[in-house]
Write a structure and sequence with these properties.
Blueprint (H helix, E strand, L loop, with lengths): L5 H23 L4 H19 L1 H8 L3 E2 L6 H14 L5 E5 L6 E4 L7 E5 H6 L2 H16 L2 H25 L12 H38 L2 H17 L6 H7 L22 H13 L5
Parallel strand pairs: 2-4
Antiparallel strand pairs: 1-2, 3-4
């Protein structure tokens, strides 16, 4: 049972996204083949990204596959946890970067990949690494790549509708009068911003769930809490450059890889580290904050 109701929060956020979609559609007030072309292109691009998520993420991080001889601890931990969860063994990769981080990707457990950077393998001890890998495996088992892809598709749909609204204006009401142009302009500007904020909020709720479920899988929430403390300092000391390819992968990583100084939580792909650590410590104590 998820004591923080993150699944319910995700469902409610998707509900808000659908409300925004219908709101823009109502203002648009007209069907158009050109509009459907925009929508279908956006959905097709999102589906391609979902289907090839593992390859794209591995390529963006310039990661290379590793054997059990090269990374015995990583293999031992992932094999133990995936066996415990009754899931297939994913492919394992290492990214040649000093920035400490890790991510898992893939459209399902049978097509999953887990990647650690060289920096995180040097930074964490084996117990902490086990906590991180448990978190990453739960992203795969919880189908978070699918969830994030649906959120991205809906955000793209809202953006396409808003752009169409901006260029072609609102539709007409039942009396044939044009819709309020100010409302159309406001919706065209604010809808994509709102969709992005909701998409980021969904990403944050999935991080909380992966923390909780991963700690239940490992049976050691304090190990992940300790790892997150080190990662907070490590990513601040060695942030990645916000290149477009890396920005597409950043939401999959266990810690925000970029310099987040001055960035509000509302526009972050990850929850605040102090909140995540507090929740994990409460799990170890047998109580859960509201």
């Amino acid at each position: 049972m998820h004591h923080h109701f993150n699944g319910l929060k995700t469902a409610l956020l998707f509900g808000v996204m659908w409300a925004v979609v219908f709101g823009v559609w109502a203002l648009l007030g007209a069907k158009s083949s050109l509009l459907w072309i925009f929508v279908l292109i956006g959905l097709g691009t999102t589906f391609y990204g979902y289907w090839n998520s593992a390859k794209m993420a591995i390529r963006a991080m310039r990661a290379y596959p590793v054997t059990e001889q090269q990374q015995p601890a990583m293999y031992r931990i992932v094999r133990e946890l995936s066996t415990k969860a009754g899931q297939p063994m994913p492919q394992l990769y290492v990214s040649p970067t000093e920035a400490p981080n890790a991510f898992a990707t893939g459209r399902n457990p049978s097509n999953a990949a887990v990647c650690c950077t060289e920096g995180i393998l040097r930074l964490l001890d084996e117990r902490e690494l086990r906590g991180v890998l448990g978190h990453e495996l739960m992203h795969v088992y919880n189908r978070d790549i699918l969830t994030s892809s649906i959120a991205a598709a809906m955000a793209g749909l809202i953006t396409s509708l808003a752009q169409f609204l901006m260029f072609f204006g609102g539709g007409r009401d039942e009396n044939g009068n044009r819709a309020n142009p100010l409302a159309a302009i406001a919706m065209a500007i604010l809808a994509p911003i709102g969709a992005s904020i909701i998409q980021l909020a969904i990403s944050r709720t999935r991080e909380y769930d992966a923390d909780e479920d991963g700690s239940k899988l490992t049976g050691d929430p304090l190990a992940l809490a300790s790892a997150l403390r080190k990662l907070e300092d490590g990513t601040a000391a060695a942030p990645l450059a916000p290149e477009p390819e890396l920005q597409n992968v950043s939401s999959m990583m266990i810690a925000n890889p970029f310099n987040t100084e001055g960035v509000r939580n509302l526009f972050s792909t990850h929850p605040p580290m102090e909140d995540r650590i507090a929740r994990l410590e409460s799990m170890a104590g047998g109580t859960y904050p509201s």
